[in-house]
Amino acid sequence: MLTTVRIDHDSPVPPYEQLRLAVVDRVRSGRLTAGTKIPTVRALAAQLGLAPNTVARAYRELEADGVIETRGRQGSFIASSGDPTRDAAGRAAIAYVATIRRLGLDDDAALGFVRSALETAG
């Protein structure tokens, strides 16, 4: 399933990030389910025409986010914990609200900062 990922080399988004986002999207949509074995770094790099270090970086970030897990010589798999990105986003939102409250800002100010950040991030 990852072999169908398209990397746009003209995009301002780095190739490793395009790959990472494609994996997250496939996990969220259910096209990649928990326990699915994913290609080795070298195999996927060859199939996508990327440097192995590019794929390795995407895999490291996916593993740090809990999206994939590496099982030694068995390889890498979609993590059994489901979609951890929503859990991480929820924790980040809770931390943000705690900071806003500590600073004494109201909800309108908090939402304004979020809207501004979303616009800036594109």
Describe the structure in your own words.
The protein has 2 domains: 1-80, Arc Repressor Mutant, subunit A, CATH 1.10.10.10; 83-121, no CATH class. It is built from 5 helices and 3 strands; from the N terminus they run αβααββαα. The chain is mainly α and 122 residues long. Strand 2 (68-70) and strand 3 (76-78) form a beta hairpin. The protein has a 3-stranded antiparallel sheet. It is elongated and about 50 Å long. Residues 13-81 form the HTH gntR-type domain. InterPro entries: Tscrpt_reg_HTH_GntR, WH-like_DNA-bd_sf, WH_DNA-bd_sf. This is GntR family transcriptional regulator.
Topology:
Layout: H1 15-29, E1 37-38, H2 41-48, H3 52-64, E2 68-70, E3 76-78, H4 84-103, H5 107-121
Nutshell version of this structure?
The chain is mainly α. The chain has helices spanning 15-29, 41-48, 52-64, 84-103, 107-121; strands at 37-38, 68-70, 76-78.
Shape: elongated
Which range best describes the helical content: under 10%, 10-25%, 25-40%, 40-55%, 55-70% or over 70%? 55-70%
Radius of gyration: 17 Å
Number of domains: 2
Can you summarize the main beta sheet? 3 strands, antiparallel
SS field, number of helical segments: 5
CATH architecture of the largest domain: Orthogonal Bundle
CATH topology of the largest domain: Arc Repressor Mutant, subunit A
What's the level 1 CATH class of the largest domain?
Mainly Alpha
Strand order of the largest sheet: 1-3-2
- Whole-number average pLDDT? 91
**What are the segments in which pLDDT stays under 50 over at least 5 consecutive residues?**
none
Please tally the β strands and state the result: 3
As a percent range, the share of strand residues is 5-15%
Distance between the termini: 28 Å
Class per helix and strand makeup: mainly alpha
Element pattern in H and E? HEHHEEHH
- Could you name the CATH homologous superfamily of the largest domain? Winged helix-like DNA-binding domain superfamily/Winged helix DNA-binding domain
